[in-house]
Amino acid sequence: MSGDPVGIDSAAVTDWFLAHIPGVTVPLAFELVLGGRSNLTYVVTDRAGGRWVLRRPPTGAVLPSAHNVLREQAILSGLAGSAVPVPAVAGHCSDPAVTGADFYVMDFVDGVILNSDDDTAALTASGPAAFSADVVAVLVHIHRIDCDRAPFAQWRRPGGYVERQLRRWGQQLDRIEATTGALRDVARRLGRDIPAEQSVGLVHGDYRPGNLIIGPDGGVRAVLDWELCTVGDVLADLGWLVAMWDSPRPVGWAPDPAQGFAPTERIIAEYQRRTGLDIGDIGYYHAFALWRLGCIAEGVYHRYRDGAMGVQGVYLDEMAARPAMLAEMAAAALRG
């Protein structure tokens, strides 16, 4: 239908909901969640006010391994009932005839996602401090998941995680014909001095405030966006959180100690206290995270430029500049 959001055939998806989601009432409304960097996300609301979230790959040509939403659905199902809070999966569909691609549906989790200073107004006075503690506690829970059971065991790979990631994202840059040479320069430097892995576990891959739903008290209610999850070096996840927690405004919103959030140093120290791991190489993992974010930013820019993410209010010039900026930040982090 012409009024449908990009990536949704509302009539066909409504029929699927009626067949697979108990208690749904029609008509359904589909709202594209703006600002997505990878897969397309929609809030689905039925006539009675029931809400779900639907995830599907971007439209157009995509890298299947990077947008495998059924893999993400399997991860969420595998984490159900664990110490890691995740939305419950309501159903999934592998028939592209429904809306052009695989998709899955999960329960809507009410709460706050911190993407700006305005979002912090929903927290209680003690919320920022409580969130700072819980964000580390939940990350440790992720890293302690038993990776010898399904579905996680299938993602164990020979060789080091960082080495594999350097290779994978380098191939991604080649595939999209990226022109940011600085990212390739940083990759070579990162490849020369990879730390030995201390602990291998479940790695979220994009663990940051913007992928967490929290309550007003600061407690984490759900961890979202598992498409980059795999088994690997857990300190890469900590490095990613540090990069997001300490990011300048051009990269994205970051928690401000002036608002009651813990400083970056305390986040690192709390993780070390809970795990006993040596965090002496955190500067390397910080640089690696910034480099990987630059590679992701390159892919995001290409998807928005090519229209695969729908018509959204974005500034392509700013997007085009982000990969080089992040490459320079990664180089600076390596220099210490």
From TrEMBL:
Pfam families: APH. CDD domains: ACAD10_11_N-like. The keyword Transcription regulation does not apply. One of its GO terms (molecular function) is transferase activity. It comes from the Bacteria. The keyword tRNA processing does not apply. Residues 32-267 form the Aminoglycoside phosphotransferase domain. Keywords: Transferase. This is Aminoglycoside phosphotransferase. It comes from Mycolicibacillus trivialis.
